[in-house]
Sequence to fold (229 residues):
Amino acid sequence: MNVLEWAFGKRMTPAERLRKNQRLLDKAIRELDQQRVKLEKQEKTLVSQIRQSAQKGQMGACKIQAKDLVRTRRYIEKFYSMRSQLQKISLRLQTYRTNEQMMQAMKGATMALGSMNRTMNLPSLQRIAMEFERENDIMEQRQDMMDDAIDDAMDMGLEEEGDEVVEQVLEEIGVDLSQAMGETPSGLQVAAVPENKVAQAVGGGGGGGGGGADPGDDDLQARLDSLRR
Fold:
């Protein structure tokens, strides 16, 4: 704490001190750069003057100007070294400032996490999760019931309409639905015996003497031909 701070009762925070010192260092670096640029211009001027004196044969002036040139170059190197040192200090202060900001951020995050942990009620959260799961199950059951009801309503009458479509198609191709679904299989079952008998008669060498055509066989053959068409 300096005299002004003690007299007026004003205290600077560490972050404010770092910012103030950082500004002072940046100002000093700029001033050094300005002086170094002036010395570099002076160096170029001395070099041109030495050439002019050498051309005129003024050796005494050349020696004095050469000493000034050497001295100027040494100061330029010294300014470079001073700037490097100031830059090093500035970077260190910037690092400290960054660390201070990180600590403040961590402090704020810690306080926020502590406040959240204090306000968090685990039994309440568990109860809310259980209620959500129960309500979700109820919603899924109701959704399934609604889907089944909609499917039943949409499927109503499909079988009758399907039968009508099949009957219409069979009528278009010239086949009666009742004949195709009912009478034809029974006719096939009845006709199985005569076919077997004919086969036995052929195999036995014509023992029954049944040479005439049966009208029932002709009717069956006509029905089978209509189904094939």
Notes: Residues 183-211 have pLDDT under 50 and may be disordered. The chain has seven helices and no strands. Helices lie at 3-8, 14-56, 59-119, 122-155, 158-172, 177-204, 215-228. Residues 59-119 form the longest helix (61 residues).
